[in-house]
Amino acid sequence: MVYIFIDNYSTIKKETIMKYRLLMTITLITLISFIVGCGSTEDHDTMHKDERIEKSESDIVRDYDVDVASLDENGDGNVFQCPMDWEVISDEPGSCPLCNMALKEYSVTNAKRNLEEHRPHNH
Ligand SMILES: [Zn+2]
Fold it and tell me: Residue 106 Cα, ligand 1 centroid: separation in angstroms?
């Protein structure tokens, strides 16, 4: 009677331990693949985002010798310029790719004058 009880008990204990170990292994694998999956997805998104910003925003950084009138693509006489970075000019409202400030609307004449007044001096 006592022997049978002990035998049953040890069998149950073994099964429980094996089930627990299996569960732990599955949990660990799931956790690792989740972390790895998240990490790679995040990296991919960040890369994609950076690429998009580079393509859409850095092309409004102009040269100080740029012809401002030619940047007024819709011909309304106004362009958007960054008050911190005068060489950042766009025909559409947006934010400056250099300082993230909102672009301010200036007439083509004023934008041109801003560029000339703030042009880096050549000594
Ligand atoms: Zn700026």
Answer: 15
